[in-house]
Amino acid sequence: MQRLNKHNYKQAAVRPEKILQFGEGNFLRAFVDWQVQVLNEKTDFNGSVVVVQPRGSEKIERLNQQDGLFTLFLQGMKDGKPVDEHMVIESISRGINLFTNYEQYKELAGKQDMRFIISNTTEAGIVFDPEDRLEDRPPRSFPGKLTAFLYYRFQAFSGDDSYGCIMIPCELIENNGEKLKEVVLQYANHWNLGDEFINWIHDANTFCSSLVDRIVPGFPLDSIDEKTAALGYKDELMVVGEQYHLWVIEGPDWIKDELPVAGTGLNTLIVDDLTPYRVRKVRILNGAHTAMTPVSYLYGLDTVEESVKHQELGVFIKELVDHEIVPTLDGSPEELAAFSNEVLNRFMNPYIKHYLLSISLNSISKFAARNLPTLLDYVNQTATLPKRLVFSLSCLLYFYRGKRGNQDIQLQDNPEILQFFQALWGKADQHEFHIEDLVKNVLANKQLWAMDLTSIPGLVSAVTTNLLNIKQFGVKEALKELYGTSIK
Ligand SMILES: NC(=O)c1ccc[n+]([C@@H]2O[C@H](COP(=O)([O-])OP(=O)(O)OC[C@H]3O[C@@H](n4cnc5c(N)ncnc54)[C@H](O)[C@@H]3O)[C@@H](O)[C@H]2O)c1
Ligand SMILES: O=P(O)(O)OC[C@@H](O)[C@@H](O)[C@H](O)[C@H](O)CO
Question: Which residue numbers delimit the Mannitol dehydrogenase N-terminal domain (predicted)?
Protein backbone atom coordinates (compact mmCIF):
# COMPACT_ATOMS: atom_id res chain seq x y z
CA MET A 1 0.00 0.00 0.00
CA GLN A 2 1.25 3.48 -0.86
CA ARG A 3 2.12 6.16 1.67
CA LEU A 4 0.27 9.46 1.85
CA ASN A 5 2.30 12.14 0.02
CA LYS A 6 1.83 14.64 -2.79
CA HIS A 7 2.45 12.03 -5.51
CA ASN A 8 -0.09 9.56 -4.19
CA TYR A 9 -2.62 12.06 -2.91
CA LYS A 10 -2.48 15.51 -4.44
CA GLN A 11 -0.17 18.46 -4.46
CA ALA A 12 -1.36 20.93 -1.82
CA ALA A 13 -1.88 24.50 -3.06
CA VAL A 14 1.34 26.47 -2.75
CA ARG A 15 0.73 29.30 -0.31
CA PRO A 16 3.02 31.94 1.25
CA GLU A 17 4.75 30.64 4.36
CA LYS A 18 3.26 32.86 7.08
CA ILE A 19 3.51 30.67 10.16
CA LEU A 20 6.49 29.11 11.87
CA GLN A 21 5.42 26.29 14.18
CA PHE A 22 7.60 24.96 16.97
CA GLY A 23 6.21 21.48 17.47
CA GLU A 24 5.28 18.64 15.16
CA GLY A 25 3.19 16.87 17.82
CA ASN A 26 -0.31 15.51 17.64
CA PHE A 27 -1.96 18.43 19.35
CA LEU A 28 -0.70 21.24 17.11
CA ARG A 29 -1.44 19.25 13.98
CA ALA A 30 -5.01 18.46 15.10
CA PHE A 31 -5.65 21.98 16.32
CA VAL A 32 -3.57 24.76 14.75
CA ASP A 33 -2.83 23.19 11.36
CA TRP A 34 -6.49 22.23 11.02
CA GLN A 35 -7.51 25.82 11.85
CA VAL A 36 -5.10 27.17 9.23
CA GLN A 37 -6.72 24.84 6.71
CA VAL A 38 -10.16 26.23 7.66
CA LEU A 39 -8.84 29.80 7.32
CA ASN A 40 -7.43 28.99 3.88
CA GLU A 41 -10.71 27.43 2.78
CA LYS A 42 -13.01 30.11 4.13
CA THR A 43 -11.08 33.38 4.09
CA ASP A 44 -8.35 35.19 2.17
CA PHE A 45 -5.75 34.22 4.81
CA ASN A 46 -3.78 32.23 2.22
CA GLY A 47 -0.92 31.02 4.37
CA SER A 48 1.04 27.85 5.06
CA VAL A 49 2.94 26.54 8.04
CA VAL A 50 6.63 25.66 8.34
CA VAL A 51 7.26 23.19 11.16
CA VAL A 52 10.41 22.78 13.22
CA GLN A 53 10.88 20.18 15.89
CA PRO A 54 11.68 21.70 19.30
CA ARG A 55 13.85 18.68 20.17
CA GLY A 56 15.31 16.00 17.92
CA SER A 57 14.58 15.67 14.21
CA GLU A 58 13.21 12.24 13.37
CA LYS A 59 9.56 13.32 13.27
CA ILE A 60 10.38 16.19 10.91
CA GLU A 61 11.85 13.67 8.49
CA ARG A 62 8.62 11.68 8.68
CA LEU A 63 6.60 14.84 8.05
CA ASN A 64 8.68 15.64 4.96
CA GLN A 65 8.36 12.08 3.65
CA GLN A 66 4.63 12.78 3.55
CA ASP A 67 5.14 16.29 2.10
CA GLY A 68 3.54 17.75 5.22
CA LEU A 69 0.27 15.90 4.58
CA PHE A 70 -1.55 13.94 7.27
CA THR A 71 -5.03 12.62 7.96
CA LEU A 72 -7.05 14.08 10.78
CA PHE A 73 -10.06 12.28 12.26
CA LEU A 74 -12.46 14.55 14.16
CA GLN A 75 -14.94 12.51 16.12
CA GLY A 76 -17.59 13.55 18.61
CA MET A 77 -20.66 15.70 19.05
CA LYS A 78 -21.08 18.76 16.85
CA ASP A 79 -24.17 20.99 17.16
CA GLY A 80 -25.83 18.23 19.18
CA LYS A 81 -25.23 15.49 16.60
CA PRO A 82 -22.61 12.75 16.47
CA VAL A 83 -20.05 13.50 13.75
CA ASP A 84 -17.24 11.23 12.58
CA GLU A 85 -15.26 12.84 9.78
CA HIS A 86 -11.75 12.75 8.42
CA MET A 87 -9.77 14.99 6.14
CA VAL A 88 -6.26 15.37 4.78
CA ILE A 89 -4.63 18.47 6.27
CA GLU A 90 -2.64 20.34 3.63
CA SER A 91 -1.62 23.47 5.49
CA ILE A 92 1.98 22.43 6.28
CA SER A 93 4.34 23.36 3.46
CA ARG A 94 7.43 21.64 4.92
CA GLY A 95 9.40 20.78 7.99
CA ILE A 96 12.93 22.04 8.53
CA ASN A 97 15.43 19.71 10.17
CA LEU A 98 17.37 22.19 12.27
CA PHE A 99 20.32 19.83 12.64
CA THR A 100 20.91 19.31 8.94
CA ASN A 101 19.28 22.33 7.27
CA TYR A 102 19.84 25.22 9.63
CA GLU A 103 20.49 27.60 6.71
CA GLN A 104 16.86 27.14 5.61
CA TYR A 105 15.78 28.33 9.05
CA LYS A 106 17.94 31.46 8.75
CA GLU A 107 16.58 32.12 5.27
CA LEU A 108 13.01 31.76 6.49
CA ALA A 109 13.69 34.47 9.09
CA GLY A 110 14.40 36.85 6.20
CA LYS A 111 11.13 36.17 4.31
CA GLN A 112 8.66 39.05 4.21
CA ASP A 113 5.54 36.89 4.49
CA MET A 114 6.51 35.26 7.79
CA ARG A 115 4.28 36.66 10.52
CA PHE A 116 3.05 34.20 13.15
CA ILE A 117 5.07 32.00 15.48
CA ILE A 118 3.17 29.24 17.23
CA SER A 119 4.46 26.70 19.72
CA ASN A 120 3.49 23.76 21.88
CA THR A 121 6.53 22.42 23.63
CA THR A 122 4.72 21.01 26.72
CA GLU A 123 4.86 22.66 30.12
CA ALA A 124 8.62 21.99 30.12
CA GLY A 125 9.47 23.90 26.93
CA ILE A 126 9.52 27.60 27.84
CA VAL A 127 12.79 27.63 29.78
CA PHE A 128 16.12 29.44 29.73
CA ASP A 129 19.22 27.32 29.19
CA PRO A 130 22.40 29.29 30.02
CA GLU A 131 24.45 26.81 27.96
CA ASP A 132 22.69 27.85 24.74
CA ARG A 133 24.68 30.10 22.40
CA LEU A 134 23.60 32.07 19.34
CA GLU A 135 26.24 30.19 17.33
CA ASP A 136 24.67 26.80 18.13
CA ARG A 137 23.02 25.18 15.15
CA PRO A 138 20.49 24.97 16.70
CA PRO A 139 20.37 26.27 20.29
CA ARG A 140 18.95 23.55 22.50
CA SER A 141 15.93 25.21 24.07
CA PHE A 142 12.82 26.37 22.23
CA PRO A 143 13.15 30.03 23.40
CA GLY A 144 16.84 29.91 22.41
CA LYS A 145 15.86 28.81 18.89
CA LEU A 146 13.16 31.47 18.76
CA THR A 147 15.50 34.26 19.91
CA ALA A 148 18.00 33.25 17.22
CA PHE A 149 15.19 33.31 14.61
CA LEU A 150 14.03 36.76 15.72
CA TYR A 151 17.61 38.05 15.68
CA TYR A 152 18.18 36.80 12.10
CA ARG A 153 14.92 38.56 11.17
CA PHE A 154 15.96 41.77 12.91
CA GLN A 155 19.22 41.69 10.95
CA ALA A 156 17.59 40.76 7.64
CA PHE A 157 15.24 43.78 7.79
CA SER A 158 17.72 46.15 9.48
CA GLY A 159 15.48 46.48 12.53
CA ASP A 160 12.45 47.67 10.50
CA ASP A 161 9.40 47.59 12.80
CA SER A 162 7.11 46.41 9.98
CA TYR A 163 8.69 42.96 10.05
CA GLY A 164 8.06 41.90 13.62
CA CYS A 165 6.13 38.74 14.42
CA ILE A 166 3.09 37.71 16.44
CA MET A 167 3.94 34.96 18.91
CA ILE A 168 1.08 32.70 20.04
CA PRO A 169 2.37 30.00 22.40
CA CYS A 170 -0.07 27.18 23.23
CA GLU A 171 1.74 25.65 26.20
CA LEU A 172 -0.66 25.04 29.07
CA ILE A 173 1.07 27.41 31.47
CA GLU A 174 -0.17 30.63 32.96
CA ASN A 175 0.70 33.79 30.97
CA ASN A 176 2.55 31.75 28.35
CA GLY A 177 3.01 34.80 26.08
CA GLU A 178 4.54 36.96 28.80
CA LYS A 179 6.70 34.06 29.99
CA LEU A 180 8.01 33.46 26.48
CA LYS A 181 8.84 37.15 25.97
CA GLU A 182 10.66 37.19 29.31
CA VAL A 183 12.88 34.27 28.28
CA VAL A 184 13.54 35.73 24.82
CA LEU A 185 14.69 38.97 26.48
CA GLN A 186 16.83 36.94 28.88
CA TYR A 187 18.60 35.39 25.86
CA ALA A 188 18.93 38.79 24.18
CA ASN A 189 20.79 40.03 27.26
CA HIS A 190 22.75 36.82 27.79
CA TRP A 191 23.94 36.85 24.17
CA ASN A 192 24.62 40.62 24.19
CA LEU A 193 22.38 41.20 21.18
CA GLY A 194 22.20 44.93 21.88
CA ASP A 195 19.62 47.54 22.87
CA GLU A 196 18.39 48.05 19.32
CA PHE A 197 17.38 44.42 19.09
CA ILE A 198 15.76 44.56 22.54
CA ASN A 199 13.80 47.66 21.53
CA TRP A 200 12.75 45.93 18.31
CA ILE A 201 11.48 42.94 20.33
CA HIS A 202 9.34 45.34 22.39
CA ASP A 203 8.13 47.61 19.61
CA ALA A 204 7.75 45.39 16.55
CA ASN A 205 6.68 42.08 18.06
CA THR A 206 3.57 40.98 19.91
CA PHE A 207 3.55 38.15 22.42
CA CYS A 208 0.01 36.87 22.99
CA SER A 209 -0.89 34.46 25.75
CA SER A 210 -3.27 31.77 24.64
CA LEU A 211 -5.39 28.94 25.99
CA VAL A 212 -6.14 25.86 23.94
CA ASP A 213 -8.82 23.24 24.36
CA ARG A 214 -9.35 20.12 22.28
CA ILE A 215 -8.95 16.54 23.43
CA VAL A 216 -6.43 14.92 21.09
CA PRO A 217 -5.63 11.31 21.99
CA GLY A 218 -3.25 11.24 19.01
CA PHE A 219 -2.24 8.34 16.78
CA PRO A 220 -5.03 5.73 16.60
CA LEU A 221 -2.96 2.72 17.61
CA ASP A 222 -6.05 0.61 18.34
CA SER A 223 -7.76 1.10 15.01
CA ILE A 224 -4.85 1.81 12.68
CA ASP A 225 -5.37 -1.29 10.49
CA GLU A 226 -9.05 -0.59 10.07
CA LYS A 227 -8.45 3.09 9.30
CA THR A 228 -5.60 2.35 6.87
CA ALA A 229 -7.76 -0.14 4.99
CA ALA A 230 -10.61 2.37 4.75
CA LEU A 231 -8.32 5.20 3.57
CA GLY A 232 -6.39 3.07 1.09
CA TYR A 233 -3.00 4.61 1.98
CA LYS A 234 -0.47 4.43 4.79
CA ASP A 235 -0.21 7.47 7.02
CA GLU A 236 2.27 7.47 9.90
CA LEU A 237 1.06 10.87 11.02
CA MET A 238 -2.62 10.07 11.35
CA VAL A 239 -4.18 11.83 14.31
CA VAL A 240 -7.50 11.60 16.13
CA GLY A 241 -9.16 14.43 18.04
CA GLU A 242 -12.60 15.40 19.23
CA GLN A 243 -14.89 17.79 17.36
CA TYR A 244 -14.92 20.36 20.18
CA HIS A 245 -12.29 23.09 20.09
CA LEU A 246 -11.64 26.41 21.74
CA TRP A 247 -8.67 28.74 21.28
CA VAL A 248 -8.63 31.89 23.38
CA ILE A 249 -5.95 34.36 22.35
CA GLU A 250 -5.20 37.31 24.60
CA GLY A 251 -4.08 40.14 22.40
CA PRO A 252 -4.83 43.46 20.75
CA ASP A 253 -7.98 43.81 18.69
CA TRP A 254 -6.08 44.39 15.41
CA ILE A 255 -5.01 40.71 15.41
CA LYS A 256 -8.56 39.97 14.23
CA ASP A 257 -7.62 41.57 10.90
CA GLU A 258 -4.56 39.39 10.44
CA LEU A 259 -6.17 36.21 11.75
CA PRO A 260 -9.62 36.49 10.20
CA VAL A 261 -11.44 33.89 12.30
CA ALA A 262 -14.80 35.71 12.43
CA GLY A 263 -17.46 33.99 10.38
CA THR A 264 -15.41 30.84 9.79
CA GLY A 265 -17.16 28.74 12.43
CA LEU A 266 -13.90 28.47 14.34
CA ASN A 267 -14.33 28.77 18.10
CA THR A 268 -11.30 31.06 18.29
CA LEU A 269 -11.66 34.15 20.41
CA ILE A 270 -9.36 37.16 20.57
CA VAL A 271 -9.86 38.74 23.99
CA ASP A 272 -8.37 41.24 26.47
CA ASP A 273 -8.12 38.77 29.34
CA LEU A 274 -8.11 35.01 29.12
CA THR A 275 -7.83 34.36 32.88
CA PRO A 276 -11.44 33.22 33.43
CA TYR A 277 -11.25 30.82 30.48
CA ARG A 278 -7.94 29.40 31.65
CA VAL A 279 -8.86 28.90 35.28
CA ARG A 280 -12.12 27.11 34.57
CA LYS A 281 -10.64 24.92 31.83
CA VAL A 282 -7.57 23.88 33.79
CA ARG A 283 -9.44 23.31 37.04
CA ILE A 284 -12.53 21.58 35.63
CA LEU A 285 -11.36 19.70 32.53
CA ASN A 286 -7.69 19.02 33.24
CA GLY A 287 -8.43 18.83 36.97
CA ALA A 288 -11.07 16.15 36.46
CA HIS A 289 -8.76 14.22 34.09
CA THR A 290 -5.89 14.29 36.55
CA ALA A 291 -8.08 13.53 39.57
CA MET A 292 -9.90 10.59 37.96
CA THR A 293 -6.77 8.97 36.54
CA PRO A 294 -5.28 7.19 39.60
CA VAL A 295 -8.72 6.36 41.04
CA SER A 296 -10.11 4.83 37.86
CA TYR A 297 -6.91 3.15 36.79
CA LEU A 298 -6.42 1.45 40.16
CA TYR A 299 -10.11 0.51 40.10
CA GLY A 300 -9.30 -1.46 36.95
CA LEU A 301 -10.47 0.85 34.19
CA ASP A 302 -8.37 2.10 31.29
CA THR A 303 -10.08 5.03 29.58
CA VAL A 304 -11.81 8.30 30.40
CA GLU A 305 -15.03 7.19 28.72
CA GLU A 306 -15.20 3.97 30.79
CA SER A 307 -14.64 6.01 33.94
CA VAL A 308 -17.33 8.65 33.44
CA LYS A 309 -19.84 6.02 32.31
CA HIS A 310 -19.05 3.69 35.22
CA GLN A 311 -21.87 3.27 37.74
CA GLU A 312 -19.81 4.18 40.79
CA LEU A 313 -16.88 6.12 39.38
CA GLY A 314 -19.14 8.19 37.13
CA VAL A 315 -20.95 9.44 40.23
CA PHE A 316 -17.65 10.00 42.04
CA ILE A 317 -16.25 12.08 39.15
CA LYS A 318 -19.43 14.12 38.68
CA GLU A 319 -19.64 14.88 42.39
CA LEU A 320 -15.97 15.77 42.49
CA VAL A 321 -16.53 18.31 39.72
CA ASP A 322 -19.90 19.64 40.91
CA HIS A 323 -19.33 19.69 44.67
CA GLU A 324 -15.60 20.27 45.00
CA ILE A 325 -14.17 21.98 41.90
CA VAL A 326 -16.99 24.22 40.62
CA PRO A 327 -17.90 25.85 43.98
CA THR A 328 -14.34 27.14 44.35
CA LEU A 329 -14.45 29.05 41.03
CA ASP A 330 -15.46 32.66 40.45
CA GLY A 331 -18.08 33.38 37.84
CA SER A 332 -21.71 32.78 37.05
CA PRO A 333 -22.86 29.47 38.60
CA GLU A 334 -25.06 28.81 35.53
CA GLU A 335 -22.15 29.26 33.12
CA LEU A 336 -19.87 27.11 35.24
CA ALA A 337 -22.51 24.39 35.46
CA ALA A 338 -23.02 24.52 31.69
CA PHE A 339 -19.26 24.31 31.13
CA SER A 340 -18.77 21.38 33.49
CA ASN A 341 -21.70 19.47 31.96
CA GLU A 342 -20.23 20.01 28.54
CA VAL A 343 -16.86 18.72 29.76
CA LEU A 344 -18.42 15.57 31.22
CA ASN A 345 -20.28 15.01 27.95
CA ARG A 346 -17.02 15.40 26.04
CA PHE A 347 -15.45 12.79 28.30
CA MET A 348 -18.25 10.39 27.24
CA ASN A 349 -17.32 10.75 23.57
CA PRO A 350 -17.86 7.18 22.32
CA TYR A 351 -15.48 7.62 19.39
CA ILE A 352 -12.45 8.48 21.42
CA LYS A 353 -10.32 6.17 23.50
CA HIS A 354 -8.48 8.52 25.82
CA TYR A 355 -6.21 6.33 27.89
CA LEU A 356 -5.79 7.13 31.56
CA LEU A 357 -2.19 6.05 31.33
CA SER A 358 -1.47 8.70 28.71
CA ILE A 359 -3.04 11.34 30.96
CA SER A 360 -0.97 10.00 33.88
CA LEU A 361 2.27 11.42 32.40
CA ASN A 362 3.81 13.73 35.07
CA SER A 363 0.78 13.26 37.33
CA ILE A 364 2.47 14.75 40.37
CA SER A 365 3.12 18.16 38.81
CA LYS A 366 -0.29 18.02 37.13
CA PHE A 367 -2.00 17.42 40.49
CA ALA A 368 0.00 20.31 41.94
CA ALA A 369 -0.98 22.66 39.11
CA ARG A 370 -4.52 21.50 38.36
CA ASN A 371 -5.98 20.17 41.63
CA LEU A 372 -4.04 21.51 44.55
CA PRO A 373 -5.33 25.09 44.06
CA THR A 374 -8.87 23.70 44.20
CA LEU A 375 -8.12 21.71 47.33
CA LEU A 376 -6.63 24.77 49.05
CA ASP A 377 -9.50 27.06 48.00
CA TYR A 378 -12.03 24.49 49.20
CA VAL A 379 -10.32 24.23 52.60
CA ASN A 380 -10.15 28.03 52.89
CA GLN A 381 -13.78 28.46 51.97
CA THR A 382 -15.33 25.65 54.01
CA ALA A 383 -12.76 24.75 56.69
CA THR A 384 -13.32 21.11 55.68
CA LEU A 385 -11.48 18.78 53.31
CA PRO A 386 -12.88 17.98 49.85
CA LYS A 387 -13.17 14.23 50.45
CA ARG A 388 -13.17 13.13 46.81
CA LEU A 389 -10.13 15.19 45.88
CA VAL A 390 -8.37 13.91 48.97
CA PHE A 391 -9.30 10.37 47.93
CA SER A 392 -7.83 11.06 44.50
CA LEU A 393 -4.64 12.35 46.12
CA SER A 394 -4.51 9.15 48.20
CA CYS A 395 -4.92 7.02 45.06
CA LEU A 396 -2.19 9.07 43.40
CA LEU A 397 0.23 8.12 46.17
CA TYR A 398 -0.73 4.48 45.73
CA PHE A 399 -0.48 4.78 41.92
CA TYR A 400 3.19 5.77 42.36
CA ARG A 401 3.76 2.43 44.08
CA GLY A 402 3.72 1.22 40.49
CA LYS A 403 1.39 -1.79 40.73
CA ARG A 404 -2.17 -2.49 39.65
CA GLY A 405 -2.80 -5.88 41.24
CA ASN A 406 0.16 -7.96 40.12
CA GLN A 407 0.73 -5.86 37.03
CA ASP A 408 3.47 -3.22 36.86
CA ILE A 409 2.28 0.27 35.97
CA GLN A 410 4.39 2.10 33.37
CA LEU A 411 4.89 5.22 35.48
CA GLN A 412 5.98 8.28 33.52
CA ASP A 413 7.50 11.07 35.56
CA ASN A 414 10.85 12.66 36.40
CA PRO A 415 13.40 10.06 37.52
CA GLU A 416 13.86 11.85 40.88
CA ILE A 417 10.14 11.68 41.59
CA LEU A 418 9.98 8.00 40.64
CA GLN A 419 13.00 7.20 42.83
CA PHE A 420 11.51 9.13 45.74
CA PHE A 421 8.30 7.08 45.65
CA GLN A 422 10.11 3.82 44.97
CA ALA A 423 12.25 4.29 48.07
CA LEU A 424 9.25 5.14 50.28
CA TRP A 425 7.09 2.30 49.02
CA GLY A 426 10.04 -0.10 49.29
CA LYS A 427 10.26 0.69 52.99
CA ALA A 428 6.50 0.63 53.54
CA ASP A 429 6.15 -2.73 51.80
CA GLN A 430 8.99 -4.14 53.93
CA HIS A 431 7.15 -2.85 57.04
CA GLU A 432 10.13 -0.62 57.87
CA PHE A 433 7.82 2.32 57.59
CA HIS A 434 4.24 2.93 58.68
CA ILE A 435 1.89 4.24 55.97
CA GLU A 436 1.43 7.40 57.99
CA ASP A 437 5.17 8.07 57.76
CA LEU A 438 5.02 7.58 54.02
CA VAL A 439 2.11 10.03 53.79
CA LYS A 440 3.92 12.60 55.94
CA ASN A 441 7.06 12.27 53.83
CA VAL A 442 5.18 12.76 50.58
CA LEU A 443 2.94 15.59 51.74
CA ALA A 444 5.83 17.46 53.34
CA ASN A 445 7.92 17.38 50.16
CA LYS A 446 7.97 20.99 48.95
CA GLN A 447 9.65 20.00 45.72
CA LEU A 448 6.50 18.15 44.74
CA TRP A 449 3.89 20.64 45.89
CA ALA A 450 5.77 23.94 46.37
CA MET A 451 4.46 23.89 49.96
CA ASP A 452 4.25 21.61 52.97
CA LEU A 453 0.85 19.94 52.71
CA THR A 454 1.08 18.45 56.19
CA SER A 455 0.08 21.91 57.45
CA ILE A 456 -3.45 21.42 56.05
CA PRO A 457 -5.57 20.38 59.06
CA GLY A 458 -6.64 16.74 58.90
CA LEU A 459 -4.97 15.96 55.56
CA VAL A 460 -2.32 13.53 56.81
CA SER A 461 -4.89 11.58 58.74
CA ALA A 462 -7.45 11.48 55.88
CA VAL A 463 -4.89 10.38 53.31
CA THR A 464 -3.49 7.77 55.70
CA THR A 465 -6.95 6.30 56.33
CA ASN A 466 -7.69 6.16 52.60
CA LEU A 467 -4.34 4.66 51.81
CA LEU A 468 -4.66 1.96 54.47
CA ASN A 469 -8.07 1.04 53.04
CA ILE A 470 -6.79 1.05 49.47
CA LYS A 471 -3.78 -1.07 50.42
CA GLN A 472 -5.81 -3.59 52.37
CA PHE A 473 -9.11 -3.78 50.44
CA GLY A 474 -8.52 -2.17 47.06
CA VAL A 475 -9.92 1.06 45.59
CA LYS A 476 -13.45 -0.24 45.13
CA GLU A 477 -13.92 -1.02 48.84
CA ALA A 478 -11.99 2.06 49.94
CA LEU A 479 -14.38 4.18 47.91
CA LYS A 480 -17.37 2.60 49.65
CA GLU A 481 -15.72 3.32 52.97
CA LEU A 482 -15.28 6.95 51.90
CA TYR A 483 -19.00 7.30 51.33
CA GLY A 484 -19.90 5.53 54.57
CA THR A 485 -22.11 3.12 52.64
CA SER A 486 -21.94 1.80 49.15
CA ILE A 487 -22.32 4.53 46.53
CA LYS A 488 -25.15 4.20 44.06
N1 LIG B 1 -3.31 16.02 23.47
C2 LIG B 1 -4.21 16.83 23.99
O3 LIG B 1 -5.40 16.50 24.15
C4 LIG B 1 -3.81 18.21 24.37
C5 LIG B 1 -4.77 19.21 24.41
C6 LIG B 1 -4.40 20.48 24.83
C7 LIG B 1 -3.09 20.70 25.19
N8 LIG B 1 -2.19 19.69 25.15
C9 LIG B 1 -0.82 19.96 25.58
O10 LIG B 1 0.09 19.52 24.59
C11 LIG B 1 1.25 18.91 25.17
C12 LIG B 1 1.47 17.56 24.56
O13 LIG B 1 1.40 17.69 23.17
P14 LIG B 1 0.87 16.53 22.24
O15 LIG B 1 -0.38 15.96 22.82
O16 LIG B 1 0.87 17.06 20.87
O17 LIG B 1 2.01 15.46 22.45
P18 LIG B 1 3.21 15.08 21.48
O19 LIG B 1 4.05 14.16 22.28
O20 LIG B 1 2.68 14.64 20.17
O21 LIG B 1 4.00 16.44 21.25
C22 LIG B 1 4.79 17.04 22.24
C23 LIG B 1 5.64 18.14 21.62
O24 LIG B 1 6.38 18.78 22.65
C25 LIG B 1 7.77 18.76 22.36
N26 LIG B 1 8.50 18.68 23.63
C27 LIG B 1 8.39 17.73 24.58
N28 LIG B 1 9.18 18.02 25.63
C29 LIG B 1 9.81 19.19 25.33
C30 LIG B 1 10.78 20.02 25.99
N31 LIG B 1 11.24 19.70 27.18
N32 LIG B 1 11.23 21.14 25.34
C33 LIG B 1 10.76 21.45 24.13
N34 LIG B 1 9.85 20.72 23.48
C35 LIG B 1 9.38 19.60 24.05
C36 LIG B 1 7.96 17.58 21.45
O37 LIG B 1 9.11 17.73 20.67
C38 LIG B 1 6.68 17.64 20.62
O39 LIG B 1 6.82 18.61 19.61
C40 LIG B 1 0.99 18.84 26.66
O41 LIG B 1 1.76 19.83 27.28
C42 LIG B 1 -0.48 19.14 26.79
O43 LIG B 1 -0.79 19.80 27.98
C44 LIG B 1 -2.51 18.47 24.72
O1 LIG C 1 -2.06 16.77 27.71
P2 LIG C 1 -1.68 16.66 29.16
O3 LIG C 1 -0.89 15.41 29.36
O4 LIG C 1 -1.04 17.88 29.71
O5 LIG C 1 -3.03 16.50 29.98
C6 LIG C 1 -3.94 15.48 29.68
C7 LIG C 1 -5.30 16.05 29.35
O8 LIG C 1 -5.87 16.61 30.53
C9 LIG C 1 -5.25 17.13 28.28
O10 LIG C 1 -4.55 16.71 27.17
C11 LIG C 1 -6.66 17.54 27.83
O12 LIG C 1 -7.23 16.52 27.07
C13 LIG C 1 -6.58 18.80 27.01
O14 LIG C 1 -5.97 19.82 27.77
C15 LIG C 1 -7.93 19.23 26.49
O16 LIG C 1 -7.82 20.49 25.89
Answer: 17-258
Q: Are 93 and 15 in contact (CB under 8 A)?
A: yes
Please report the pLDDT score of residue 485 as a whole number: 67
Mean pLDDT in the chain? Answer: 96
29 is known to lie in a ligand binding site: yes
Q: Residue with the nearest Cα to atom 18 of ligand 1?
A: 25
**Average pLDDT score over residue span 291-308:** 98
On whether 406 is known to bind a ligand per the annotation, the reply is no
Q: Is 289 in the pocket of ligand 2 (CB under 6 A)?
A: yes
User: What ranges do the domains of the chain cover?
Assistant: 17-271, 275-483
Closest CA to 136 of 94, 61, 207, 187: 187
Regarding the domain delimited by 275-483, which CATH topology (the fold level of the hierarchy) does it fall under?
N-(1-d-carboxylethyl)-l-norvaline Dehydrogenase; domain 2 (1.10.1040)
Go through 214-226 and write b for each residue having 16 or more CB atoms within 10 A of its CB, e for each that does not.
bbbbbebeeeeee
**Ligand 1 pocket list (CB less than 6 A):** 23-27, 53-55, 120-125, 142, 172, 212, 214-216
User: Mean pLDDT across the stretch 220-230?
Assistant: 95
**Nearby residues of 30 by Cβ (< 8 Å), 6 or more positions away:** 72, 74, 214, 216, 239, 240, 241
Nearest residue to 417 via CA among 481, 462, 366: 366
Closest ligand, as measured to the CA of 170: 1
Q: What is the pLDDT of residue 438?
A: 98
Q: For 61-113, how does the pLDDT look when each residue is reduced to its tens digit (9 = 90+)? A: 999 999 999 999 999 988 778 899 999 999 999 999 999 999 999 999 999 99
Asked if pLDDT for residue 292 goes beyond 90, the answer is yes
Q: To test ligand 2's pocket by mutation, which of 27, 216, 286, 413 has the most ligand atoms within 8 angstroms of CB?
A: 286
Q: Is 21 annotated as a binding residue?
A: yes
Contact 474, 485 (CB under 8 A): no
- For the structural domain made of 17-271, what CATH number should be given? 3.40.50.720
